[in-house]
Amino acid sequence: MTKKQSAVLQGVAILMMVYHHLFSFAVEYDSLLPFVQADTARRMAWFCKLCVGIFAFVSGYGIYYVLKSRQEERFWGRLLTEYRGMLLRILRLYGKMWLVLAIYMWIFFGLLRQPFMPEQLLGNLTALNPTYNGAWWYVEQYAKILLVLPLLDLLLTRFEQPGQRRIKWTFFAVIMLAGAGGMLAGRLLWPELWVLMLGLLKSLRVSFLLISVVGYLTARYALFQRADRQLRRLGVWVPVCVSVALLIFSVALRVRLATDAAYARIDFLLTPLLIYGISTLLSYAKPLCVFLAWWGRQSTYIWLVHGFVFGFLYYVVKPYVRLDFGIYLVVLLVSAAVAVPLRLLEKLPGRLYAMCKKEEKK
After folding, report:
1. d(CA 259, CA 240)
2. Does pTM surpass 0.85?
3. Among 266, 274, 285, 309, which residue's beta carbon has the most beta carbons within 10 A?
């Protein structure tokens, strides 16, 4: 999977995300789209929850290549190098969220004079309790993904020196013993510790964490490339036929099993099948790939702002029109119109710094 293909998939995911957030709870309407009843639109929106799976899979897939580039042969050196890189990536995403947060607070609390509750600020700054925008919960989840994947990478990395291999296995043995000891002590001696550990496990959102792990393993063992080579040996059009079958199977099963908007229990199995099918079919539609890749490049800021856009349109526009496909398009376009200048604003400090350095050299 190339960077361009990743951008295409992120474009698909952001279109799904906006639809998911608009129509997941839209049972109060008789008809939302032409010839589509409310329950059908809602189930389509539940299926679109797979957008999170696509983002998580692409993240795990890409992180493999980031970690692969580390050439450190010592265990501790590699661990520190990998986590230094992951922390920088986490800070970059938080920086984007803080930029949106600062603008939102200036508009909402400054210009509109809405009541400000200081106790909510920390939860929104950390994304641990994002009351201003519920879609920001994935910022925290992304951070957890980036903190877990280096451990998996270190576990699967074969160090050439026997001493480094011993250090690696000792490190993971200590982690496992500490975890098992903590659970045993909590279960037998300190119920509070047991409750804390269960809460920590639940907060990991294992369903989404597993998807990123599957993405990492798919990249590490080149599973898509191997599958594609095997299928092409059977015939040029075999990958296309298989991709169509995988898409139909994934969509049908996901729609059938989803019980609510948050359902994600088997997404770690369905997401790679869906992604392989989408990627293979879109490789034959270059103009559509260009279109989706553009949306993919804007996807981070669309994700961070579309909740505000929808909230504004819901209260301002809803009294006059139905919540239908037109509103979906408006939310997408307005969110993109906000995302583009935000991307430019984010790059402005770096460009100014480069200009200053260039002037100094003169």
Report:
1. 31
2. yes
3. 274
